Amino acid sequence: MEFESNQAIYIQIVDYICENILNGNLKPGDKITAIRPMAVKLEVNPNTVVRSYSFLQDTGIVYNKRGLGYYITEDAVVITKKYKREEFLHSTLPTFFKAIDLLNIDFNEIKTLYDQYKKN
Amino acid sequence: MEFESNQAIYIQIVDYICENILNGNLKPGDKITAIRPMAVKLEVNPNTVVRSYSFLQDTGIVYNKRGLGYYITEDAVVITKKYKREEFLHSTLPTFFKAIDLLNIDFNEIKTLYDQYKKN
Amino acid sequence: MEFESNQAIYIQIVDYICENILNGNLKPGDKITAIRPMAVKLEVNPNTVVRSYSFLQDTGIVYNKRGLGYYITEDAVVITKKYKREEFLHSTLPTFFKAIDLLNIDFNEIKTLYDQYKKN
Amino acid sequence: MEFESNQAIYIQIVDYICENILNGNLKPGDKITAIRPMAVKLEVNPNTVVRSYSFLQDTGIVYNKRGLGYYITEDAVVITKKYKREEFLHSTLPTFFKAIDLLNIDFNEIKTLYDQYKKN
DNA sequence: GTGGTCTAGACCACC
DNA sequence: GTGGTCTAGACCACA
């Protein structure tokens, strides 16, 4: 996993977990990788992973069993979907619309690019 | 002009200038508002405007005439378009595609939302 | 480190780093002194150091690890050499040639002066 | 005449006059171009020319006949030579020596480049 | 009037 | 601890 420099690492880790929940790799009740192994795997400071997991816990996507680790909550899928949906509607979509207008891009071109994207 | 809190003000000023170049309000050879007046207008510190203008100069979008001010370069439109286009292809679009896939959104919904957006 | 008054301090700091790269004191991967300690050491405002480091980053000579500091890039030597070489060919050398022509200085005198310079 | 952006325009005008004195185009007693025509010719603000001429006057290279214009002094060649020589020894030469050392350039290469320069 | 630079100091996000 | 950004205000050189 490589970190784009323009976004906080802990947020990128959060997103990584969220994606795995939405695409079904992580299911309610699953234990997620412990902090230290995850830090080693991602080559980041353990504190950074702590921050990501705390954030996920605050959002209600994971919960903590003392001494055992972090687990996906029952509501994780719903919460994640809601969280991501808001982000999409309030941030991704406006940015996207503004850009295609400014760059004078025809909407059909996007459709073409999307079809290409799905093939890969 | 109101500033979104999650992005550096000087970048928002840069984007503001870029938009005015792309939509034709600013043309090659035009003088852009001087640093101090712009700072007053936007209610920010002059240093913040300096930073924006320096950035635009480094990018080749404006140039400086000693003691006279900043002017739009001949290539400004091309450079701005290229700069914004790269941002779109490498950042906006991937984020967008990833989101609609994860959220399982049908592409036609987007088309509908876009038509609504254009009416406003 | 004393600053010549006729050149911006932040440029002098940039040159100072560049020299240390070219003479091998700083090698790729090395961490350079953090902003605040460097500011204390050079007795300048931290902002001035920030400016120097940002400049070096834009040029590709150093890169930043979030929250850790600035590090010399792998290509630093090549870039620095190229940067300094261009400066030499396009600025230093023409100035030099023009001067010895205008002042009617024999090239051999320069050789003598250079030998003296190298002894010190 | 094109102005390099890294040096004050008025200094470049001064240098331009100095060169013409040293290479014999301007001789003691000659009248130099009046301020306004010179400003038009160089496409600069008349004030900038004023500044250059004042500088030359302070240095003793030109003198002013009220209402008639600026004229080259008798001592102009000597003064100009001295002025340029100091600049050469205290600024050009040290910069030059430092650069060839840092870039590890052999002195003989310079000789070659100089011979090429003189052919043009 | 214009920009260029610097200081002093603050707050914040992040590792 | 690290950098990133911003404010407030100053001084200077230049056109």
Commentary on this structure:
Four copies of one chain form a homotetramer. The first copy, chain A, is mainly alpha-helical. Chain A has five helices and two strands, in the order αααββαα. Chain A has helices spanning 9-22, 35-42, 46-59, 76-102, 107-119; strands at residues 62-65, 69-72. A two-stranded antiparallel sheet of chain A has the order 1-2. In chain A, β1 and β2 (69-72) form a beta hairpin. The longest helix of chain A has 27 residues, at 76-102. Chain A is elongated. Chains A and B meet through α4 and α5 of A and α4 and α5 of B. Chain B binds a DNA duplex (15 and 15 nucleotides) through α3.
**Largest interface pair:** A-B, 26 and 26 residues
Oligomerization: homotetramer
Strand content of chain A: 5-15%
Estimate the global geometry of chain A from the Cα principal axes. elongated
The largest sheet of chain A is: 2 strands, antiparallel
Q: Under CATH, the topology of the largest domain in chain A is which?
A: Arc Repressor Mutant, subunit A
Strand order of the largest sheet of chain A: 1-2
